[in-house]
Amino acid sequence: MKEKNNVFERFRNSFCRLNGHFHVLEQRIPIEVQIEYFKYSEQMRKNYAKMTEEEYYIYMHSLSNETLSSDHKKYILTSLAISSDVRAYRFLEDYAQHPEADIAHWAYMALMESRISLESELLEEKQIYISTGLGGKGEKLRFYVLIIALKEEPFQEYQRQTIESEFTYYLPSEDIEIERLTIYDSYVELVLLIPVRKDIKTILDNIIAECNQYGNFLSNIITVTNVKELSADEVAEIIQTRYADKNNKAGH
Fold first, then answer.
1. Predicted TM-score (pTM) above 0.85
2. From 72, 144, 167, 168, which residue has the greatest number of CB atoms within 10 Å?
3. How far is CA 146 from the centre of its chain?
């Protein structure tokens, strides 16, 4: 557990040491798409030349062309994003409200880069960009949390009520928003919006300890990720592995 605790501590401390204005990517965009966008944008910046008025006009109107390829749309969106132009930002802001499905993720990334580029030039405050697979809101990041029963048996009704009451009471008091709390037969899933500087591990440990005062029924080994929500098959695999490891240790 010590190594896992250090991971959470390093995550929190990395934000506590940063000074500046946070920009959190709110949309849920796959990490591989984000990496692709940043590499593409960085490459374009190397050969970027300031756009002319005519180019602005062409770019801003060509995205409505249904015959335009996805690759060409990506080029246009990225060109507008790195231009550091207020008109381009306003256009991207409008476009990202109703983007075409094939480039929706790219449009959100372009809008975020455009906003940061503008603010970096207009403001003296340091601009900090934070992106995860699950996105966020304001200065909060979205996390998926999986907590399983301590024993291989379904939760009793009072245990389900305890889980719901403790989590719904404690988390909001820490300025943590609960987007989803789902209690299954023998595990709990949560999707949370957590302030970036909060001590996630300690908060969850404390809530589990409170629940366990009423019968010691929740495992204190927690799965937390901001990359994606786990599928039912992934959850089943984790649960199977946890119980198998526990039984093997008990056997020894």
1. no
2. 167
3. 15
